[in-house]
Amino acid sequence: MPTASSSPSADTPAKRMRRKESRPSELLAAALDLFVEKGFAATRVEEVAQRAGVSKGTLFLYFPSKDELFKAVVRQTLAGRFHEWSDEVDSFTGSSAELLHYGMHSWWERVGNTQASGMTKLMLSEAQNFPEMAAFYQAEVVQPYHSLVQRILQRGVDRGEFAAVDLELATYAVTAPLIFLAMWKHSVGTHPCTASVLDPLRYLDAQVQILLNGLRVRPAPA
Predict the structure, then answer these.
(1) What's the pTM?
(2) Residue ranges of the HTH tetR-type domain (predicted)?
């Protein structure tokens, strides 16, 4: 005979509590998928709730608007990770060239090769129509990322490994290959005929080599 502790009714409160605690992450995962698939404007909160398996009213208990839902997605998938990445830059013991290589590979493994990279395409296509959303993304993602890249480049200059360059403009040179990969992954990279044409890690290796050939200090001519 089953005991009270093993009966289905006894397990229900605990299961409900676990379900309630997991709802925000389930809603954010559903929202990320839909934002990437359909864009911000075309995504309806009803669709997010349906994909997460809850009612629209339940969604609004956690996120009072679609704008707040978008901000939460950005913070969870991108903005919330800069402390981790900053600590890695601080503790890195190799050369600045190795740090740049590590950083670009790490971006692909943690962001570029995930659904989160689709946010890049979303922002490039819809920022003009949603200036407040664009300003939020600029403050939470773009500016911290640029600061991180500039720290890597400044590290190389300070150690005599990189030539002195305009750090602000050089940051765009480092960023461009990553934006290309994000756009590629969520457009032609999904097509069976083109998905195998480009190896992302080999592409990044080539881009790092090109960057370093331009950044490295060269001996003065005799």
Answers:
(1) 0.83
(2) 21-81
